[in-house]
Amino acid sequence: xxxxxxxxxxxxxxxxxxxxxxxxxxxxxxxxxxxxxxxxxxxxxxxxxxxxxxxxxxxxxxxxxxxxxxxxxxxxxxxxxxxxxxxxxxxxxxxxxxxxxxxxxxxxxxxxxxxxxxxxxxxxxxxxxxxxxxxxxxxxxxxxxxxxxxxxxxxxxxxxxxxxxxxxxxxxx
Length: 173
Description:
Blueprint: H1 2-26, H2 32-46, H3 48-61, H4 68-97, H5 101-116, H6 119-136, H7 139-165
Helix pairs in contact: 1-2, 1-3, 1-4, 3-4, 3-7, 4-7, 5-6
């Protein structure tokens, strides 16, 4: 199991890094909402290795058998690789590649709220955004948030994959 988790975890981590770098270079002139869709799509694509890892373990290492619990554990562990890679990549991006990202994104969000909310709603939402801005200026918080996002999506994919791929031993007498 360990070899499968490490192998497919590394595949997922490499995939999420490559897709992040591709979207960074090819999508820098796109809107934030399009970039967000690309980001979530990159997460899901890289986490497809959860399914393939569980399937590999079941078919190649465990004689065609895997319990739901074992499949879920394998999937979550594979997801952890991609989650940690994405969290680290996000810190590198915000700290070194685009240190102005937080301020730019904050400005974008303020303008978006200003154009879509009443003055009273805007003031309330602006206070909430100010509190979040302080929290997200911390590299540790960014790491935790980005890693948790990937891990949550990975958990969901692990659940689905575990349900699809679970197979009990046959009881032929």
